[in-house]
Description:
The chain is an alpha/beta fold.
Amino acid sequence: MTAHPLPRRLAAPPATWSRDVDVVVLGSGAAGLSAALAARPVRTALIVTKDTLDAGSTAWAQGGLAGVLDPSDSLENHVRDTLVAGAGLCDEANVRTLVAEAPKALRYLMRLGAAFDPSHEGTGPALTREGGHSHNRIVHSGGDQSGAEVQRTLDENAVAAGVEVMDRAFALDLLVGTNTAGGRQAAGVRIARIDAAGDVVSVGVVTARAVVIATGGYGQVFASTSNPPAVTGDGLALALRAGLPARDIEFVQFHPTVLWRGPDAKGQQALISEAVRGEGAILFDGAGERVMLGVHPQEDLAPRDVVASAISRRMASAPAGVDDHVFLDATHMGERFYTRFPGITAACRDAGIDPATDRIPVAPAAHYVCGGVVAGLDGRTELPGLYAVGEVACTGVHGANRLASNSLTEGVVAGTRVGRDLAWELPEDVGWTEEDGDPTLRLVDPDRRTTVRTTMSRHVGVLRTPEGLDTAGAALDLPVDSAGWGRGAWEATNLLTVARSVVAAATTRTESRGCHRRTDHTGPVDDWLVHLDVRLDHRGEVVVAGAPTAAARAVGVASTASTVPPDPPDSREA
Ligand SMILES: Cc1cc2nc3c(=O)[nH]c(=O)nc-3n(C[C@H](O)[C@H](O)[C@H](O)COP(=O)(O)OP(=O)(O)OC[C@H]3O[C@@H](n4cnc5c(N)ncnc54)[C@H](O)[C@@H]3O)c2cc1C
């Protein structure tokens, strides 16, 4: 039990307006836009998005989208690579559906106007390979501007198709009604229109036959993240408050090298791509010793999760007193760095670093979340009328570790499947029964967001210790006592809700699997081939279900040792 339970609804002023549509989509990344676009021909579709259209992760994606387009590749290869990366926790049926539909989704995007980089032969898009893929199957655009091209394509097509967009509109909570079978059913969503500063302009209700959550991941729960500021886990927190389960949320992928901009740096950090190490750059610790020497046969080019954990271990030993970053030395490239990596050069210069002459300070950062709201690849959740797609959803296609470039593909495939289903048939029309805003509710003070994020990065990062998880649990028992409202307080409340849920799941899973690594359990344990579902109970306490039996858990405890887990044999860059 915590001293401060989490709120079951977000405090907000009473609603002063209402709208009614067939389908309301929360979020305007690849998943939400795909859903709205596919539903639109025969449905009224409204996208509610809390910032500008392109504020989510989609626009930042670099590498590209995975799908089998090369005849010498096969669907079976892509399935196998995905299952290996997922470390035993993938839903194989959903993986097979995703992989089978991925080529169609990529051709669909091209038909919508996405300009993927062409192959040298000019016979189709160029296909590249990323960590964990056995064949070249990643389409990309503008070199490393793939997400921006997907965002542009879907934005333009959705608007041209008549999808209505309500921007600077913050989705607060679900409206729930009762269907003819007497069960709970989603009936709409409470929305706050906000200004650029995040202050409330007005609050209203959007009633809809279908509510699609497409709010992305929760990278901003960590102080150090590659995710943009809008990615605060709002949709996951909304679903938890509505009583839905979140699955596999302990599996957070960390990118090994983002630009470290000092202990007080906030918000999104620039990625220092693997390609820099591909050009021969080398990682050094604060004492000037090599980080990857003797760690892995591929040294600095080891898979992403291996490099991230090696850096974290080295930082934990604080060489020369430096415990929060290491250094990437690419100075052998000299001024060639500027032309090879213009974007990274700009980010470094912005931080006062010249990569041709200076070592670049880097640290691992939260990058992608494999888990989320439990949903099928058709977006259906356990609550009729409520759908979840994209990074906010847990469809089981990523298991315990995502295969690189499968996530944008998943967003387009799942989003389009949901939209198409809703075009064919809408759920029953139900009225909502929830009462309006309650002025006595309290939120988390926006100033506490720093505590949440720092705690998560410090104690729930790449390498998790039982002591660190306990410390995080205690530090996150923060008061929920702020009487004000607005984007800052709503996001802080959502961040705390998600953070406590992640800590609960990470504490319960006493093994190291995929991207969840604990220092006290040296590798995967067969009995832990189960999913953990986290829910918020009626008191606002986080509860975890799904752990193996006590006997099975003893197997995990028996393997306890105060050593750092070795890199699992199936570690892949993803
Ligand atoms: C730097 C970077 C590089 C990446 N590279 C790749 C790659 O190469 N290939 C790949 O497959 N994946 C990559 N990923 C991951 C991929 O970009 C994401 O998983 C994917 O874009 C998620 O899409 P989405 O539609 O689910 O969510 P997002 O694109 O994150 O969109 C979420 C939307 O929800 C909105 N929103 C959030 N909260 C609310 C609220 N309360 N009310 C209303 N709206 C809300 C946001 O403003 C946003 O519009 C990368 C991610 C990052 C950060």
